[in-house]
Write a structure and sequence with these properties.
heterodimer, A: Protein Transport Mog1p, Chain A, 3 domains, 6-stranded antiparallel sheet, 7 helices, B: mainly alpha, Arc Repressor Mutant, subunit A, 8 helices, 65% helix, membrane (chain A), transmembrane (chain A), transmembrane helix (chain A), DUF3379 (chain A), transcription regulation (chain B)
């Protein structure tokens, strides 16, 4: 390797470890000096590239993965069970259809409930409203532009629920805290109310996604539904026509969490 | 029990069952490569939140395809390929400007003020590079890939990659007012 070849390689790959590159560096003082200057510049480039990494990034990825893995296992178990039941079901399919419980948790809401069981938000994190810009940003990161941000969002976080991307919020309402989860990339067909293990829920289509609410009481679901429809720029029907309702601020005893 | 997890902030932490070897493998993958992958994603898309989403989506895809991973030595290249595809998908869906990097307020708290200013200037200069120069440079500096590996990643010839890397450094030095390596070469 001559000096010209060395300098060309140095300019494109300073950390090159080719034998002839290393050998030339050892025998040419000028090229060795050029290599030293290049190394110094490389260390500055490396430092510039090393932007700060968000705290707990690895943990959040692992949480998303374990949530998905759990859902996959459940899906496989359901698949196996469905296979076993298929023969028997053929005999009683009509009876099953008639007796299907009205409060069965829909699939999307089931994923959200599974996520809420994993991601329990402590009362210490829901004591006061988060800045509205944080809510805006969380939705923006999911590709959703809000017309406004409802009052009383005391917790917000971008979370996965099964294969879907969501914005997970907690809104402490009069009848207790409500977990409000916006699923950005799945729009369901219509509204469904459900209950499971003493918890109540509602899922409804909203914007290009779906909104799922879960709480120990369903008294505030209508109000929350209205404010989020308004926030998404959807017309809201009230007894006085179309309006934009405003939720009351959370009460002093409002705490909570997901189920 | 696991360490603190951002998505589980309470004392009511569930007890995890013993992990499978596949789960162990994946966890090692995440802990070993999420930092580099985030930085790569950041310089690819220029946005913190989007970079986090990209990295998460990349690892979720990697988890689903983990059984296909044969060469442990090639794992970083494999992850970067997945991430680049995820970014391309996102770009198709949202028409995201790939070179709109505008947030550089990420100073190293250990660094001196002079050092921070210099890093900030260098970050601005890197951000101003056209993607065709920035992409191979990021792969080389952050990924530690050789020119031939970068060529394979980007679907280019090795000579083209070498030229782009040479020019990328020239442009950075030019923007920072440093001596020009091209001049050094032409003097020979």
């Amino acid at each position: 390797m001559n000096c010209l070849e060395f300098r060309r390689r140095l300019g494109s790959e300073p950390a090159c470890s080719f034998e002839d590159f290393v050998a030339h560096r050892a025998e040419c003082v000028h090229c060795a000096a050029a290599h030293a200057r290049a190394e110094e510049f490389e260390s500055r480039i490396r430092a510039a590239f090393n932007v700060a990494v968000p705290a707990n990034l690895a943990d959040r990825i692992l949480l998303a993965q374990t949530t998905e893995a759990r859902h996959e296992r459940r899906g496989r178990r359901r698949g196996f069970a469905a296979l076993m039941l298929a023969a028997a079901a053929s005999i009683v399919v009509a009876l099953v259809a008639v007796n299907r419980p009205r409060t069965e948790v829909p699939e999307l809401a089931g994923m959200v409930v599974d996520h809420l069981r994993e991601h329990v938000v402590g009362a210490d994190r829901t004591g006061s409203p988060v800045p509205k810009q944080d809510v805006m940003d969380a939705f923006a990161a999911r590709g959703v532009s809000l017309a406004s941000v409802p009052d009383g969002v005391n917790y917000v976080h971008k979370c996965p629920a099964g294969p879907y991307n969501t914005v997970h919020m907690v809104m402490p309402e009069r009848s207790g805290p409500v977990s409000v989860v916006y699923v950005a990339d799945k729009r369901i067909a219509g509204q469904v109310d459900f209950s499971r293990d003493g918890m109540h829920g509602r899922q409804l289509p909203l914007g290009k996604g779906s909104l799922v609410m879960v709480a120990s009481a369903d008294a505030d679901f209508d109000a929350i539904e209205r404010v989020w429809k308004s926030a998404m720029g959807e017309a809201v029907a009230t007894s006085e026509g179309f309006a934009v309702p405003v939720l009351q601020s959370p009460g002093p005893g409002a705490i909570l969490a997901a189920p | 029990m696991k360490q603190d997890v951002d998505c589980k902030e309470t004392a009511t932490m569930p007890v995890y069952p013993p992990m499978s070897s596949r789960q162990n493998q994946f966890e090692a993958l995440v802990r070993g490569h999420s930092t580099d992958l985030y930085r790569y994603a950041y310089w690819l898309c220029g946005q913190d939140a989007l970079a986090q989403d990209l990295v998460q989506d990349t690892f979720l895809r990697a988890w689903r395809a983990l059984d296909k991973l044969r060469e442990v030595g090639a794992v970083k290249a494999w992850l970067i390929t997945i991430l680049r595809r995820e970014h391309a998908r996102l770009f198709e869906r949202k028409s995201m400007p790939s070179d709109d990097i505008d947030d550089f307020d990420l100073p190293d708290p250990q660094a001196t003020p002079e050092r921070r200013t210099e890093e900030s200037a260098l970050r601005q200069a890197i951000a101003k590079l056209e993607p065709k120069y920035r992409d191979p440079l990021v792969l080389q500096v952050l990924g530690g890939f050789s020119c031939s590996e970068i060529a394979a990643q980007l679907g280019l010839g090795e000579a083209a990659v070498m030229t782009q890397l040479f020019r990328a450094r020239q442009k950075l030095k030019g923007q920072l007012g440093l001596d020009d390596q091209a001049a050094e070469v032409s003097e020979l």
